[in-house]
Amino acid sequence: MSRTLRVPYVPQAEETDCAPACLASVLACHGRRVPLRDLREATGASRDGVDALTWLRAARDQGLRASAVRITVPWRDGVPDPSGLATVALPVVAHLADGHFVVVERVRGDLVTVVDPAIGRHRMPFAELAPELSGVLLTAQPGAEFTRGGPRGTAGRRLAAALAAQWPGVLCAVALSLVGGAMSLLLAMVLKLLAADAVSGGSGGGLRLYAVTVAVGLVSGLAVAAQNQLLGRLQVRQSLTMSVDLVWRLLHIDGRTLLRRDPGAMAARAQAVDAFSLGLVHQLVPAAGAVVNAALLGTVIVREDSVVGGLAVGLGLLVVGVPLTSWRRQSAAALVEARLTACRDAAGFAALRALDAVKAGGGEAEVTGRWSSLHAVAVRATSVHNRQQQTLTALPAVLTVGASSLVVLAAAPRILHLHMTLGALFAVQSLTGGFTAAAATAVGGLLAVPGLLTRIGLLDDLLAEPYDPSAVRTVEPDTGARAGGSLRMEQVTAGYAPGRPVLREVDLDVAAGEWVAITGPTGAGKTTLARLAAGVLAPLTGRVLLDGRPSDERPRGELVRSVAWVDQTIELFAGTVAENVALWDETVSDEAIERAVHDACLDRVVELRGGCHRAVVDEGGANFSGGERQRLEIARALACDPSLLVLDEATGALDRAVEQQLFARLRRRGVTVVMLAHRRSAVRACDRELVVREGRVTPSGPAPTGPPGGTPPAGRSATGPLAGARAARVGDR
Known about the structure:
The chain folds into three domains: 15-142, Cathepsin B, Chain A (Alpha-Beta Complex); 155-165 and 239-463, ABC transporter transmembrane region fold (Up-down Bundle); 487-702, 3-Layer(aba) Sandwich (Rossmann fold), CATH 3.40.50. Helices cover 54% and strands 15% of the residues. The chain is built from 24 helices and 20 strands. Strands 1-8-4-5-6-7 form a six-stranded antiparallel sheet. It is globular. It starts with 17 loop residues before the first helix and ends in a 31-residue tail after the last strand. Mean pLDDT is 80; it is low at 706-733.
């Protein structure tokens, strides 16, 4: 009978990571370690998920013999028969009906052990799994080219590096902890002398010993207070340093990676910084000092009396040893809790961002139900983790109470036989309390390690994403240099996942000052084309040129001021109109702000509110209408005086009169405009029209004229309406 392989649990960082996480688990099961981010790239995991064929292709690239098997689960008397799984070599990846992937590790009778990237390893009746199966199983066994090995996890090294970065404060905190341990030793010696003095009937040194006892207590209290103060400062510094680093890296992350990951999940990931800093500083640092104190106190206890001291030390070691037996369970529970909490928070962020749409569609009940179900699952995971921790942390408290009684019982016959003095008993009892407390602190730090490793792993999954080379470059001061406004694309292929391009071999030529309308069905790739033109997305192949020069070869300051992009998502912040237009860039002059607001046809609205520096913008622009918010976005784009303006459905909320006035003012600027539009009034304002269909760009001639609803510009010829086009499989990004 073949040996059942244990499948390591690799948690998915986001909901769409289940396929690469299952592949990572299968590879680790056979001895090959591959980071999740590498497999995410290999499978092309994005917000659209991964299909089974792509998973098989990625598995074969890793040296596995992978194939798909279709099974049918027979039902007898309303009970599913798992015998079909017996014919497949385990572990096997099961594709569920909802598109989720899990690893089936073991089948024993009517029970199956499932490793779910979302919630971890669990055993469940096959009757619960069978209805969820899509009927497709993915088998993967090592092939001839399969190699074992791979990089080991870096979470532990990152944990050590985080402590090393704060080493002066950490050493001071450990030193203060050792001061507390030294005071415990001194107190035990004082108690031993007091007991000896009382037994001998002397009283000459009693007052001095009592004074020393008070001084020891005072010093111990001051050391604890100083340590808590220091730990608080270390936590703030650690949290601030990591938060700034995380935000900086998010702002410089590769555009393709940023667009295929869930923004809500990335935002929720930032909350892990505070929890990580709290656990690192307030649990792990004291635990380091506690280990030293426990070793020191244990040595002194044994030297006082080998029998009684050995018993006391044994109880303390028991405190440390029991949690080690459940280390793996603690790690899995911490992983599940962190991931499910992040999923709940991400869903909450997404619901709040779309609150108006939810209310307009009457979807409050559905959104509440979805969030409540995610919250319930997260709370259950937290409850399971907390119960495990409470069970283990309760043991030190029980042993602390029982240790004193056991020490006295063990010491009584030794005192009667004069093998031990009463003073030594007092000293051992005092030191036993300190030893047990130190061991409990060490256990607390030990139990915190799985959660800390989980959080730093989730953060590293985001921090390890590749940089955008252009975003890392410094933005130089504005010297007034701008590109001329001409745009050219040569054989550009672009997309968000390997093997699934959204645009293929696109050639585009826009002259300086020209207005070009980009039209096409939803899902054809118009927004991807806009991102290429704006420099937000780098092409997979081909070149994007401004004035005949590759855009990535231009100084970044010149590039970001030459090209401006207004997309469909409006982002406004609490502040003034001037702050929102300039985005807190103090180098943008008041004249540039005023001109941008005027050319965006927002000057009268702002004047009625007190001017650019007094008109208040609420969070999200809630105190402005939809059309006014769009014009604020356009004013922000115009503030840097660009030579090329990319508009992605940026006038959809404007009435015809305001739209025509806006276009007239933009014409007077002489700016080149690439306009993604569905409205014919916007298309008629352009010089010519290009159609994006199924990832390719084809010319449609001059912009059409004559449809009702507006007067076409002079000198423009008319063309017929576009033929209906089939939407491409990829999303209009």
